[in-house]
Write a structure and sequence with these properties.
Layout lengths: L2 H20 L2 E10 L2 E9 L6 H18 L6 E6 L10 H6 L4 E10 L2 E11 L3 E6 L11 E4 L4 E6 L3 E6 L4
Parallel strand pairs: 2-3
Antiparallel strand pairs: 1-2, 4-5, 4-9, 5-6, 6-8, 7-8
Length: about 170
């Protein structure tokens, strides 16, 4: 396990009893370096969404627990927040909860002439993610298969080709 994975896993273990007591759930934990600073981010959620009081309660308790265990050797900034409306779908549990939802998907390299796609998340497995796109054309692509429908296309992307997938924001 990398240092990042170790820190995230240990933080998630500390966080579990804290979020249970606060009546929220863990969406994700990430330890990242941005510029010269390290950030430990805990994303929490609950049905109907979290508010600032939920974040404050969890942040204070998590900060105390992290100070007590003191397993992170770097100086870091702790952030506790909601994953937001346009939340990134990083883990299988995030994808599972989002089946049937509209998503935005970006690939590392162009597929056809595009790197950005939008559609409804239909399903996924260990190697691929499937979305239903209502419009658009990726003819000539050998990296994403599609099945012609009257107004919809089923697009299958290799997970290794996906840079990011997140819930789409519809306003």
């Amino acid at each position: 396990m990398t240092k990042r994975e170790t820190y995230e896993s240990m933080t998630e273990e500390l966080l579990l009893p804290i979020v249970e007591k606060a009546g929220v759930g863990i969406y994700d934990v990430e330890y990242v370096k941005e510029g010269s600073d390290f950030y430990l981010r805990a994303y929490i959620d609950k049905p109907g969404g979290v508010d600032i009081n939920d974040c404050e309660k969890v942040s204070r308790a998590l900060s105390d627990a992290l100070d007590e265990k003191d397993f992170i050797t770097d100086a870091y900034i702790l952030e506790v927040s909601s994953p937001g409306l346009g939340r990134t779908l990083k883990k299988d549990k995030h994808l599972e909860k989002s089946i049937g939802e509209k998503v935005e998907l970006k690939t590392y390299k162009p597929i056809g002439k595009r790197k950005e796609f939008e559609g409804v998340l239909k399903g996924f497995d260990q190697n691929s993610i499937i979305i239903i796109e209502e419009t658009g054309d990726i003819d000539g692509s050998k990296d994403a298969k599609h099945i012609e429908g009257t107004e919809e296309k089923e697009l299958v992307f290799a997970r290794d080709d996906i840079a990011i997938i997140r819930l789409a924001l519809d306003f």
